[in-house]
Amino acid sequence: MIANYGYKDGSGDFFIAIDSDKCSGCGNCIEVCPAKALELRPDDNDPFRDEPVVVVVEEHRKKIKYTCAPCKPVSGNTPPPCIASCEPGAITQSW
């Protein structure tokens, strides 16, 4: 299941998405996030899954555009730390 967080702009595009089906629960993205905006939690949408998945911390959900702004790539070539560290490719961006 894909969890979308924040809006990029008035178009309705989401700012960041986490695919819980791809998330391995390794926590690499949590370690490299300078804003500490990510955490591991049980997957509320899949009660049969034993492994936790990465989600955006509740306090950052409505302001994720601003929380993640310092990591936004300037040239578009370097992905943010959370995306670069996510080996299964569970985290994506839409900026």
Quick gist of this model?
It contains three helices and five strands, in the order ββαββααβ.
Keywords:
two-stranded antiparallel sheet; single chain; Alpha-Beta Plaits; three-stranded antiparallel beta sheet
Describe the structure.
The protein is of the alpha+beta class and 95 residues long. The protein has one domain: Alpha-Beta Plaits (2-Layer Sandwich), CATH 3.30.70.20. 15% of the residues lie in helices and 24% in strands. The chain is built from 3 helices and 5 strands. The protein has a 3-stranded antiparallel β-sheet with strand order 1-2-5, with no helix packed on it. The mean pLDDT is 85.
According to CATH, what is the class?
A: Alpha Beta
**Stretches with pLDDT under 50, minimum 5 residues:** none
Structurally, how many domains make up the residues? 1
Walk across the major sheet and give the strand order.
1-2-5
What's the story with the biggest beta sheet?
3 strands, antiparallel
> What percent of residues are in strands?
15-25%
- Number of DSSP helices? 3
Would you count the extended β strands for me? 5
**Portion in helices:** 10-25%
Radius of gyration: 13 Å
Structural class: alpha+beta
The appropriate CATH architecture is 2-Layer Sandwich
CATH topology: the name is: Alpha-Beta Plaits
What is the typical, i.e. mean, pLDDT?
85
Beginning-to-end CA distance, first to last residue = 21 Å
